[in-house]
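Aggregate trends can hide what the representation actually does to any particular protein. In the encoding step, the backbone of a single protein was reduced to a row of integers, each denoting a local shape. The record that follows shows the chain in one-letter code together with its fold in token form.

***
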Amino acid sequence: MHRAFEGECRAAINTVGLEPSVGFLHETSSYQTKQSFVYDLQEPFRWIADVAVMEAFESGVLDLPDFYFTGDDYRYRFDPEAKERFLGLLRERFNSRVTYMRHALKWDTVIEQKAVGLNRYLVGRSARLDFREPEPILTEIDDRELCKHMLDLSEAEARLSGIKRSTYYHLRRKNRTVRFLRTYNKTKMKLNRWQI
């Protein structure tokens, strides 16, 4: 998780030509692997990764059995398959769109725009620097309820809600074999309409 987020910030810094090892909040280091400015740029957007972690546990993408303790270095690690599922969720969060400067942008683009703004501020091309916007939009999810509803739904009810027979059987089959069910938003809306 940390590496994926770090990569987004490093890419933004490299795009605008700033030095990743010279930080403002984090201590500057001569170590090539410690890039203080990358960590600085992460701070205003750290909530994106935090929300992805909460979503992962709420939806069942991650669960306690996915983690294991290695006694040699006193760290918890998680299963490679679980890591892939989580990284998919984190990518979705970064690819979600938010309104910024009257445009619908992905969060990775917003991070890049903030790096551009900081660069302009540092070289004196802009008198203003704003890291407050855009505000995050947080929505509660409960896909476990949706999965349960899918299993309880009869074929006739699915047909009435507009879900095709092939989609119905595919979702029911997947629902029994995975802990987290990915569903297209259009299908979710149809399921939710029937639930109401």
The longest strand covers residues 67-70. The chain has two domains: 2-122, 143-195. The CA atoms of residues 175 and 181 lie 6 Å apart. Residues 143-195 form one domain.
